[in-house]
Write a sequence for this structure.
C-alpha cells in the first residue's frame, strides 16, 4: 500500500510547497473540502475526504472528518493493516492539521456565537488520533516543521520513531493549550469571591522568547506569555543584551511600584524590591530624590517612571549611575536617540491594558508536589475604610507621606517597614523574620543617606504585634504610622503612639508579599 497524507488546514501557510514535496516523494494526498480546493488550484493532485469516503460535509461544514473509516485509517496499528485492506480502507501515514483560530477570534472581540463556531472539533480529533498512533503515523501541526520533514521524507523515506514521538508530544501540547483557552473563556480560572475554585487548573501559555539565563547564569530560562492577557510592556531599545529571568521579575516589581500613583513618581528597583521611591511635580526631581534615598542600592537597578522620559532626564541618569533597565509610559524621540547610543541599556515602554475583560490576574507559584494559586493583591488604599485610633489625626503632609509609604510597603517583601519623609522613601526594610529588625534596617539606610527621621512616617505591611516598633519609631522622631491593626495588643500599640503624640491609622488590610 502506498503512503497517504491527510491535510486539514485553516492556516495554509507553506502548505502547497509542502504538499508538492510529499507528492514528489510518492505520497498520495487527501484533504478536507476547502484545503482540497486550495491545493487543486495550485495544480497539486489531491483527493477530497468527501469523495474518498462517500460522505459529504454536514451541518454547513461542522462535520467534515468525523468518519469511522477515516479515523480507522489513522488509528490502525501495524497489526491492523490487514483488516483495513479487507475493508478497502486506506491507511493514513501523515496527518497535517491547523486548527480554527479560536484565540484570534477572541482577540477581535467577536460574539459568543462567532467564538463557538471557532471551536475546532474534527481537527482536534484528527490530531489526537494521529498523535496517539505515532508509532506508525506522523502528525504535523506546525508549518515551521514542513521544511525538515519534507527533506527527511525525500532522503530517508520515513521519520524515525523518536521524531514521530516528538511531533506527537508537540501535537498534544497544542490541543491541551487549545482546550485550556476555551475552558478559560467559558469559566475564568480565578473564581468570584464565595465560589469554589475549579477542580482543574489549565495553563495555556505560548513561548515568547528565551531568556539570557535564570536566577543564575548556569540556569536556563524562557518567557511564556498568556495569550489571553496583553503584555503590559514593549522593549523599545537595548535588544543587544537579552533580558534575563531576574530582569522580568524586576520589571514586574517596578510596574507595581508606580501602578495607580497619580503624582509624578520615580522608583528604583533591585532584586524585585524597591530601593527607593519619590513623588514630586517633576520627573527629574523625583529621580534625584529617589536616587539620593539609597544610592548604594541604586547601582545597576531598574528605574521606573510614570511619566514620559526625555533626553535631559536620561542624561542626568546616565551621568549619575549605572542602570540596567529603564521603564516608562514612553520616551521622546530625543530620548530614544540617546538610548540607541547605549545598546546595553534596555528601555521598556509601558502599554495600555487593551483587554479590560481579560481573566483576573493572579499568582501561580511552584511548590513541592504542585502549585499554589492566589488572586493578585489589587486592593488600594482608596478602597479601604481607614480608622484613626490615636488622639492626634495625621496632618495634611503626613497624610500624603502615609499614602506613599503604604503604597511602597505592598511591594516590599514582608515583614516590610517603609519610612517616608517629604514625598520620598528615606528607609526601607523587609524580608526579615521580625518587624523590629526591618525597622533597624530602614533606619540604617536613612542614616547612611544622611536623612533625619524627624516628622517622617512609617508604614508596616502587617499588624504591629507589640508596642516595640512604635516606641522605637517615636524615639527616632517618626510622627505617624499606618498599619493594618488586628493584633491582640492593639490597645497597647495605640497607647504607645498616644504617649509619643503620634498619629496612627489602621487599614484593616494586610499587604504581605512572600
Amino acid at each position: 500500500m502506498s503512503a497517504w497524507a491527510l491535510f486539514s488546514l485553516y492556516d495554509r501557510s507553506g502548505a502547497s510547497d509542502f504538499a508538492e514535496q510529499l507528492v514528489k516523494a510518492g505520497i498520495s494526498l487527501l484533504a478536507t473540502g476547502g484545503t482540497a480546493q486550495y491545493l487543486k488550484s495550485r495544480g497539486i493532485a489531491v483527493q477530497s475526504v468527501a469523495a474518498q469516503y462517500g460522505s459529504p460535509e454536514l451541518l454547513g461544514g461542522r462535520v467534515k472528518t468525523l468518519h469511522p473509516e477515516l479515523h480507522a485509517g489513522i488509528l490502525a496499528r501495524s497489526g491492523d493493516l490487514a483488516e483495513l485492506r479487507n475493508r478497502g480502507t486506506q491507511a493514513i501515514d501523515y496527518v497535517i492539521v491547523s486548527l480554527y483560530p479560536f484565540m484570534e477570534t477572541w482577540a477581535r472581540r467577536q460574539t459568543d456565537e462567532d467564538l463557538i463556531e471557532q471551536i475546532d472539533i474534527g481537527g482536534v480529533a484528527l490530531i489526537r488520533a494521529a498523535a496517539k498512533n505515532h508509532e506508525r503515523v506522523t502528525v504535523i501541526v506546525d508549518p515551521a516543521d514542513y521544511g525538515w520533514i519534507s527533506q527527511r521524507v525525500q532522503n530517508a523515506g520515513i521519520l524515525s520513531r523518536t521524531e514521530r514521538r516528538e511531533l506527537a508530544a508537540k501535537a498534544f501540547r497544542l490541543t491541551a493549550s487549545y482546550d485550556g483557552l476555551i475552558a478559560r473563556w467559558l469559566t475564568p480560572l480565578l473564581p468570584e469571591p464565595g465560589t469554589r475554585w475549579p477542580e482543574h487548573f489549565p495553563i495555556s501559555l505560548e513561548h515568547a522568547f528565551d531568556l539570557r539565563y535564570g536566577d543564575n547564569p548556569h540556569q536556563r530560562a524562557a518567557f511564556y506569555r498568556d495569550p489571553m492577557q496583553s503584555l503590559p510592556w514593549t522593549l523599545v531599545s537595548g535588544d543587544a543584551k537579552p533580558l534575563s529571568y531576574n530582569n522580568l521579575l524586576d520589571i514586574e516589581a517596578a510596574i507595581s511600584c508606580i501602578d495607580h500613583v497619580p503624582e509624578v513618581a520615580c522608583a528604583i528597583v533591585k532584586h524585585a524590591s524597591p530601593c527607593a521611591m519619590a513623588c514630586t511635580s517633576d520627573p527629574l526631581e523625583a529621580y534625584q530624590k529617589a536616587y539620593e534615598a539609597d544610592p548604594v542600592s541604586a547601582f545597576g537597578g531598574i528605574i521606573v517612571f510614570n511619566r514620559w522620559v526625555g533626553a535631559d532626564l536620561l542624561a542626568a541618569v546616565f551621568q549619575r549611575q549605572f542602570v540596567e533597565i529603564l521603564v516608562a509610559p514612553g520616551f521622546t524621540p530625543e530620548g530614544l536617540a540617546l538610548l540607541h547610543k547605549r545598546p546595553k541599556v534596555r528601555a521598556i515602554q509601558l502599554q495600555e491594558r487593551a483587554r479590560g475583560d481579560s481573566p483576573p490576574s493572579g499568582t501561580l507559584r511552584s511548590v513541592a508536589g504542585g502549585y499554589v494559586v492566589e488572586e493578585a493583591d489589587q486592593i488600594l488604599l482608596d478602597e479601604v475604610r481607614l480608622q484613626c485610633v490615636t488622639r492626634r489625626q495625621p496632618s495634611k503632609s503626613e497624610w500624603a507621606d502615609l499614602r506613599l509609604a503604604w503604597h511602597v510597603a505592598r511591594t516590599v517583601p514582608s515583614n516590610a517597614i517603609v519610612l517616608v519623609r517629604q514625598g520620598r522613601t528615606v528607609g526601607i526594610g523587609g524580608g526579615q523574620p521580625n518587624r523590629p529588625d526591618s525597622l533597624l534596617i530602614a533606619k540604617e539606610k536613612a542614616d547612611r543617606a544622611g536623612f533625619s527621621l524627624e516628622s517622617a512616617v512609617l508604614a508596616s505591611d502587617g499588624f504591629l504585634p507589640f508596642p516595640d516598633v512604635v516606641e522605637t519609631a517615636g524615639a527616632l522622631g517618626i510622627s505617624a504610622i499606618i498599619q493594618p491593626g488586628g493584633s491582640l495588643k492593639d490597645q497597647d500599640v495605640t497607647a504607645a503612639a498616644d504617649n509619643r503624640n503620634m498619629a496612627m491609622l489602621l487599614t484593616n488590610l494586610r499587604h504581605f508579599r512572600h
Q: What stands out?
A: The first strand starts at residue 4 and ends at 8. The chain is about 40% helix and 20% strand. The radius of gyration is 30 Å. Residues 354-360 have pLDDT under 50 and may be disordered.
